[in-house]
Q: What sequence folds into this?
């Protein structure tokens, strides 16, 4: 029998919900391109429930304990003597979310002598040291595509919020004011602007499709060029690199995985190449941008706005400069953790566990590392240090 260690974010401040704003969710059984949504043998939750917090337990307890396994759930993952570190020593499986990542460093992987499987309940496995996972024979899997559309919707929301100056205008209402000039002095139309994405995979392409009806000019850069049919359909302009693309764009959205080629990509040099007054949206990973360079660009006016919901580390400390820099639209890492997305990534996590315990192959789309090498989606998205 296995010990499963699950790291989830804390419950709501006023307690775990007893009711919800909506009674149901739309039924979605496949993603764009045809990949099916998760297909576990069963689930022990109602879609639309809060599953990503500690009391939600990803809906896994009845299933795991019914099969004789042990489930330990905690939010305490950082600092000396954390519950995560204490329980990791003899854990067989670790599950965590990108929104509240349990950082599986090489030291932690080395200390976890029984560890066989690391599952990301969501998308993005950069909180796992993939080189260490490869060398220690740990399988790494994630629930690919489960919240890609959720994140794409968040990108569109943040883009409009910055360009239209929505958040400061809403604050005027909350403060009892009515000065229209204060609200519109930084408000523009998105129509006609040039918008570019760094990476046009599942999320990046979904962003492009959702922005096309706004009559914008669309650009992208990606290591894999899209088909001519897609470029023609959306009127896309392809650029060989971010350096080539950003001077043309009024809005740039980052939708790339974090790996050595993207880490620190948006520093002072690249930000200076952007149009003055451009907007930067980052729902990918915080370390793709230089934290302090972003703040400098906002204060100088080089950037008109920055929005995203990815930070480093997560949770971000109270004194993180992104909390107080001007003209930002930051959220805690929530873009991929809507209640809709949680139903999919909880089901996908169970599907992965069912396959693992039964000795069946895990879906190729879900695999990041397997058999001592990058595999599946991991071979497409990541690189390892040699």
A:
């Amino acid at each position: 029998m296995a010990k499963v260690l699950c790291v989830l974010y804390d419950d709501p401040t006023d307690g775990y919900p007893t009711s919800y704003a909506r009674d149901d969710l739309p039924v979605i059984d496949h993603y764009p391109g045809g990949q099916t949504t998760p297909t576990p043998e069963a689930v022990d939750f109602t879609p639309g429930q809060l599953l990503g917090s500690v009391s939600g337990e990803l809906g896994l307890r009845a299933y795991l304990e019914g099969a004789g396994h042990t489930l330990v759930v905690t939010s305490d993952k950082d600092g000396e003597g954390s519950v995560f570190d204490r329980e990791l020593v003899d854990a067989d499986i670790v599950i965590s979310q990108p929104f509240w990542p349990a950082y599986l460093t090489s030291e932690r992987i080395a200390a976890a002598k029984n560890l066989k499987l690391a599952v990301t309940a969501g998308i993005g496995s950069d909180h796992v040291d993939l080189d260490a996972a490869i060398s220690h024979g740990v399988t790494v899997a994630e629930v690919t595509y489960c919240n890609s559309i959720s994140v794409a919707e968040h990108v569109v929301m943040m883009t409009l919020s910055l360009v239209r100056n929505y958040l400061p205008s809403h604050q005027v209402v909350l403060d009892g004011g009515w000065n229209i000039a204060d609200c519109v002095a930084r408000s523009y139309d998105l129509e006609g602007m040039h918008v570019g994405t760094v990476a046009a995979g599942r999320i990046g392409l979904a962003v492009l499709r959702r922005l096309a009806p706004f009559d914008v000019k669309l650009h992208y850069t990606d290591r894999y060029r899209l088909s001519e049919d897609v470029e023609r359909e959306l009127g896309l302009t392809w650029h060989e690199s971010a350096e080539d693309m950003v001077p043309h764009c009024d809005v740039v959205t980052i939708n790339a995985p974090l790996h050595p080629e993207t880490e620190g990509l948006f520093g002072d040099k690249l930000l200076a190449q952007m149009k003055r007054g451009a907007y930067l949206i980052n729902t990918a990973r915080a370390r793709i941008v230089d934290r302090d360079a972003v703040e400098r660009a906002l204060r100088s006016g080089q950037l008109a706005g920055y929005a995203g919901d990815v930070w480093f580390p997560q949770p971000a400390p109270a004194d993180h400069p992104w909390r107080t820099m001007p003209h930002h639209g930051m959220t805690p890492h929530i873009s991929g953790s809507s209640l809709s997305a949680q139903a999919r990534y909880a089901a996908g996590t169970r599907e992965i566990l069912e396959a693992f315990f039964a000795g069946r192959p895990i879906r190729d789309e879900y695999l990041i590392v397997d058999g001592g090498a990058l595999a599946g989606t991991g071979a497409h998205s990541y690189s390892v240090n040699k």
About this structure: Residues 209 and 233 are 10 Å apart (CA to CA). The mean pLDDT is 96. The two ends are 35 Å apart (CA to CA). Residues 339-358 form the longest helix (20 residues).
